[in-house]
Amino acid sequence: MTLPWLANQYNKMTEYFLLGAIGAIAGLLAGLLGIGGGIVIVPALIFSFEMDGLGQYATKIAIGTALASIFFMGLASSFTHHKKSAVEWEAFASLTPFIILGTFIGIKIAGHIDGFLLKKYFSILVILIAITMLFPISERKKQFSAGAWKWPFYSIGGLFIGALSSLFGTGGGTMTVPLLMLLLDKPIRVAVGTSSAVGVVIGFFGTCGFIYQGWQFLPDLHFGFVAPQTALIIAVFGCMTAPIGAFITHRINTLLLSRVFSVFLMIAGILLIRS
Asked: Which of 37, 105, 234, 251 has its CB surrounded by the most CB atoms within 10 Å?
């Protein structure tokens, strides 16, 4: 009995270590780039849950679990950005109602999409984000600013951010940062900080929605499309590194890291499509 028990404990420790590493990387990048840790967490969890035999539900559980962890990591990173006066609460308040509505729209759509098809859509999103990150916004010339016409951008942008973020389990930073910078003329560090706060809203309401959706499809699971133990491990390590990433954001140029990370995203997206 000793050897099987030791093997089981070894497997559990390995799993915890990998989840901790995923959380640490996701938290660091979420705080550093404001991109939302889900871009790292979801692909890794899809592979893990598919190996556990969850089949078509693997993607939805990965997304729900990622949103749960994003909620806590967003709290950690946005608090650090707030201390640096890098969160514009007026923009946050303007976006939030529309993001909440968009989040529930995305959850509703996710509940009616086949999990394997959702994985394909997510992989395409990952590749598009990777391409975008090769050419950071800070390098581009702004074509125009919203000026006095801010509300259409807040409303329509918030709906799209909420819907796509909850549908694919991202924290919203990949869309919030471009919206705030290109269309609403916010500095990059303010855009990143505000995006972290937006991730808290998306994470909370997205988690609630996926728990509810999962209860309909997987009544035997107490938390629906959310794996609480997995989310907790990722969140703990992510909360440790998210403030570090947020702190580094105010100290260095993130151009090189952004481009290196885009390469890893491209590889992850291609692997998801092929799997």
From this structure: 37
